[in-house]
Amino acid sequence: MGGLEGKGQELQGKMKEEVGDATDNPSMEAEGRADQMSGKVEEAVEDAKDSLSDLDDRDIDNRERTY
Asked: Could you tell me what percent of the chain has a pLDDT over 90?
């Protein structure tokens, strides 16, 4: 679920950045870029969690086969 939330935050940030650019509001542009980066970080964290979970699942499967 966090990956979807991250993607949503990234898209919201892109919209803020575009609105800030269109209205000549550098503060809003910067906030939008920050939101985008935060969304990307959240997605990366969720991807890492998923990868670790997959590795753990495979490790459990391998242990069950050896016993």
From this structure: 63
